[in-house]
Task: inverse folding
């Protein structure tokens, strides 16, 4: 039986906090038992969610992970596994923030800023610019921490990564010094940077829609699912519902009339289809293809990238996953818009 989401989150957080403590203790005490326990906690933190969700691969991976841990313990190599999490975590976070800085994407922190805005109130340009720069800074920090963790792990003596590969390290780092940085200072640097940045942000942008740090963390956590949805906002190619009926991918075309009434004032001399009208077309297209009316609950994320002019034709690609409607509008090879609606079904026809 799946664990309730709150219990599952608490379990994952508890395991994630316990891991660096066990890893640091194992390094200081040179304890094989704590080393194996740390590796086991790490495996549990990775597998607990898919296990409680009944994922077949997780149930197959669990005995394999147990056998691997026993094998590493028997050959006295379990300690090598402890070098990887600080490196891989920072590499993953650098990618998570960094790939949203591409020109075709929206910076991660800008996405969060938009989600935290009150409905109907776009963020001011200054905070949007700040969010992009802050995404860049976080990316650089994660790259730096990954590089430092890799360099220290490589130079640990005895038992570092270079020594395991029979390569002489250019300098010698004690296991205790590596562990102090990887399992303590690494996370302390992130927390301190976050707190300093939050204090600076509150001074520079005092009108943000949260009262204090606790309120910001609460709102950011609540926006987590919608933020995650923005990472799959580009719909997949047209297809049929999957075998469980949980996902549908659809595609349709729209033609922009030459005499659409919105062109009268938008804009004189350069008529462009307003974004709100385009979004109405997206919902209408979804209702037509699905066969029943939809009600928009919220729009976690949207980005307009190119205009539609009188007489243009565009393809609307839709992907419905549970209550999240992902959409993409393209005019030929050019992406016009993309985003996510949270929807509920209206009255279905009899």
Result:
């Amino acid at each position: 039986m799946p664990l309730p989401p709150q219990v599952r989150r608490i379990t994952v957080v508890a395991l994630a906090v316990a891991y660096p403590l066990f890893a640091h203790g194992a390094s200081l005490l040179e304890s094989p038992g704590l080393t194996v326990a740390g590796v086991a906690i790490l495996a549990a933190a990775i597998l607990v969610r898919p296990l409680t969700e009944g994922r077949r691969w997780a149930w197959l991976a669990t005995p394999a992970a147990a056998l691997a841990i026993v094998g590493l313990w028997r050959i006295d190599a379990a300690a090598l596994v402890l070098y990887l999490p600080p490196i891989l975590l920072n590499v993953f976070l650098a990618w998570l923030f960094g790939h949203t800085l591409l020109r075709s994407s929206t910076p991660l922190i800008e996405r969060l800023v938009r989600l935290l805005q009150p409905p109907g109130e776009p963020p001011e340009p200054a905070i949007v610019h700040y969010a992009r720069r802050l995404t860049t800074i976080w990316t650089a920090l994660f790259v730096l921490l990954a590089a430092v963790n890799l360099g220290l792990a490589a130079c640990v003596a005895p038992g570092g990564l270079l020594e395991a590969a029979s390569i002489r390290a250019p300098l010698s780092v004690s296991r205790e010094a590596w562990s102090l940085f990887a399992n303590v200072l690494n996370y302390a640097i992130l927390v301190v940077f976050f707190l300093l940045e939050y204090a600076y942000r509150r001074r520079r942008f005092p009108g943000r829609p949260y009262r204090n740090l606790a309120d910001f963390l609460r709102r950011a956590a609540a926006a987590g699912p919608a933020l995650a949805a923005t990472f799959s906002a580009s719909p997949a190619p047209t297809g049929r519902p999957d075998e469980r009926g949980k996902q549908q991918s659809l595609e349709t075309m729209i033609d922009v009339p030459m005499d659409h009434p919105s062109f009268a004032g938008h804009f004189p001399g350069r008529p462009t289809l307003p974004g709100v009208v385009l979004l109405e077309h997206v919902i209408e297209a979804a209702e037509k293809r699905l066969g029943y009316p939809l009600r928009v609950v919220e729009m976690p994320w949207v980005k307009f990238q190119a205009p539609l002019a009188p007489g243009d034709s565009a393809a609307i690609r839709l992907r419905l996953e549970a209550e999240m409607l992902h959409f993409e509008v393209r005019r030929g090879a050019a992406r016009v818009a993309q985003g996510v609606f949270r929807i509920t079904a209206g009255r279905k026809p009899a």
Summary: The longest helix spans residues 125-155. The mean pLDDT is 82.
